[in-house]
Amino acid sequence: MKITHVHTQVVKLPADEPLANGPELVGVTRDFVVLSIGTDQGIEGIGLTTSFAGPLLGTLKTAVDALGALAVGEDALRIEATMEKLRNAAHSCGPGGILTLALSAIDIALWDIKGKACQQPLSLLLGGYRQRVPTYASGALRREFSLEEVLEAASRLRDRGFRQMKMQLALPGRTSSAREVERTRLIREAVGDETDLMCDINQGWSVRDAISIGRQIEPYHLYWLEDVVAHDDYAGMASVAAALDTPIAAGEYVYGSVPFRHMLEARSLDIVMIDVLRAGGISQWMKIAGMAQAFNLPVVSHLLPELHVHLISAIPNGLTVEYMPWSARLFDEIPQPVDGQLHVPTLPGLGLNFNRETLNRYGL
Predict the structure, then answer these.
(1) 3-state secondary structure string, the chain?
(2) pLDDT, tens digit, for every residue of 105-143?
(3) Residue 58, strand partner residues
(4) 256 has pLDDT over 90
(5) How confident is the model at residue 206 (pLDDT cuts 50, 70, 90)?
(6) Where are the chain's structural domains?
(7) What residues contact residue 357 under an 8 Å CB cut-off, 6+ apart?
(8) Per-residue b or e along 177-214, where b marks 16 or more CB atoms closer than 10 Å to that residue's CB
(9) Cβ pair 263, 251 in contact under 8 A
(10) CATH architecture for residues 3-119+355-362
(11) What are the tens digits of pLDDT across the range 10-68?
């Protein structure tokens, strides 16, 4: 099955907060490069990527276009061979950053093609460990929102059936031990003790602050603390992980599989968070998940729940899916959370189709 063409488009979506009707971030968009890969047997696969904000979206699209052109003529079912060809062709520009983000879009689309060719959903093709997975609400309890907005959103999420949700701390310029502890206390009271409450720091604390504040908020029984310090400070993360009873989650900021090996060997984390785009696509995501399993650690996802529901459900160490539906408008239909869980799609491949109205309205 030969690849015949690759088509890409930039899409800029509004930065809304759909889970708890939170305030829209004015002047901000959520930007994606979407693509479709066609084959000589009429099967088409879709993929996407993002530059995670910033001015390099056009550069990312150019990279996807260039790599897509190199993929034309290759066998769409020989994913490892095709992706290795593309990596080798652009190895001097890698291994991370724009190159990996561009490779991911193509890898995702090829897996979509493979699932459709085999008439199997991606989750089953990758292992099919279970048919539904826990999911947690993310993006509604943001550090930029006022405490009143966050507490109201937390109650809404609980009323909508979420049994897990994530808050944020470490507001730039306003981080203090007293503020962090008080905000944690009030949010825990709002969601109740029966709710799994995660907390994302987004690399906002020093090692000293992470240990000090982390110990003070331990009475509120967080499910995990996420990205507490700089993503490449493996020794610092290991110090925090050793000092706290609260599990440490990390991994969303690193590119490829090698940094995960370093983090795992350094015992820097207790929960492995993998972003399918920064990992290098579905192929690399699965390899990282296998590495985590070798260290007896669970895996969670970052963004793109429409894709990650397949991946987390496919593996025995999949823990929960981050439900942050920033990309939801891109698709006709997506899995919806019911009582804090997502049912795995049963349509072939990703089980997704791009919403043409969205592409026309927000596409460039």
Answers:
(1) CEEEEEEEEEEEEECCECCCCECCCCCCEEEEEEEEEEECCCCEEEEEECCCCCCCHHHHHHHHHHHHHHHCCCECCCHHHHHHHHHHHCHHHCCCCHHHHHHHHHHHHHHHHHHHHHCCEHHHHHCCCCCEEEEEEEEEECCCCCHHHHHHHHHHHHHCCCCEEEEECCCCCCCCHHHHHHHHHHHHHHHCCCCEEEEECCCCCCHHHHHHHHHHCHHHCCCEEECCCCCCCHHHHHHHHHHCCCCEEECCCCCCCHHHHHHHHCCCCCEEEECHHHHCCHHHHHHHHHHHHHCCCCEEECCCHHHHHHHHHHCCCEEEEEECCCCHHHECCCCCCECCEEECCCCCECCCCECHHHHHHHEC
(2) 999 999 999 999 999 999 999 999 999 999 999 999 999
(3) none
(4) yes
(5) very high
(6) 3-119+355-362, 123-343
(7) none
(8) eeebbebbeebbebbeeebbbbbbbbbbbbbebbbebb
(9) yes
(10) 2-Layer Sandwich (3.30)
(11) 999 998 888 887 777 777 899 999 999 999 999 999 999 999 877 899 999 999 999 99
Query: Using CB atoms within 10 A of its CB, is residue 172 exposed (0-12), middle (13-18) or buried (19+)?
Result: exposed
Tokens 């890698």 map to which residue?
94
Amino acid at 208: R
Bridge partners of residue 255, in order along the sequence:
none
What is residue 94's predicted lDDT score, i.e. its pLDDT?
A: 87
Q: In angstroms, rounded to a whole number, what is the distance separating the alpha carbons of residues 270 and 206?
A: 19
* Alpha-carbon distances, residue 186 vs 137, 192, 228 (angstroms): 18, 10, 20
Q: What is the per-residue pLDDT for 42?
A: 98
Report pLDDT for 22.
76
- Name the residue among 106, 83, 287, 259 with its Cα closest to residue 91: 83
> Do 342 and 63 touch, CB atoms closer than 8 A?
no
Q: What is the pLDDT of residues 332-345, one digit of tens each?
A: 999 999 999 999 99
Q: Looking at residue 203, what is its pLDDT?
A: 97
- Residue 363 neighbours by CB under 8 Å, 6+ apart: 9, 10, 11
* Rg, the chain, Cα only: 20
CATH topology of domain 123-343: TIM Barrel (3.20.20)
